[in-house]
Design brief:
With 120 residues, the protein is an all-alpha fold. The protein has helices at 2-16, 22-30, 35-42, 45-72, 77-92, 94-119. The chain has 2 domains: 1-72, no CATH class; 74-120. The longest helix is centred in the middle third of the chain and has 28 residues, at 45-72.
């Protein structure tokens, strides 16, 4: 019950806590910029990289939140099935990959031992 109580308290804290207005802060900071300043700022590499990272995170968030709804749409089911099947097939190939790495490691170890003998 303790875990349930902690969970409820955590949910209540999130619900009761006022949401920060991140976009208002951006609007306030950029509201007085003229068009050329906005164009220059938006062309900066660090701004573009930050934007791309944010969009990647946002897309991941949307996917995790709505992936069941997405998969329920018949139009999208083939692409979902392809992804799931690809992951499963790749996972099945992991054992073979590990075996190949072990064999390669054994060969390299043998070569190293031979080189060490030749040095001595």
């Amino acid at each position: 019950m303790l875990d349930g109580r902690k969970s409820l308290e955590a949910i209540k804290e999130v619900v009761d806590k006022p949401k920060p207005k991140y976009w208002e802060r951006l609007k306030d900071a950029t509201g007085s910029m003229d068009v050329s300043q906005v164009s220059w700022v938006m062309s900066q590499d660090d701004v573009n990289k930050s934007y791309e990272a944010m969009m990647k995170s946002f897309n991941t968030y949307l996917f995790e939140r709505f992936k069941e709804d997405f998969a329920a749409v018949p139009t999208f089911q083939p692409v979902v099935d392809k992804y799931i099947n690809t992951v499963i097939n790749s996972a099945q190939g992991y054992g073979q990959h590990a075996k190949e790495l072990e064999e390669e490691n054994a060969k390299l170890k043998q070569q190293l031992e031979e080189l060490m003998k030749n040095v001595n």
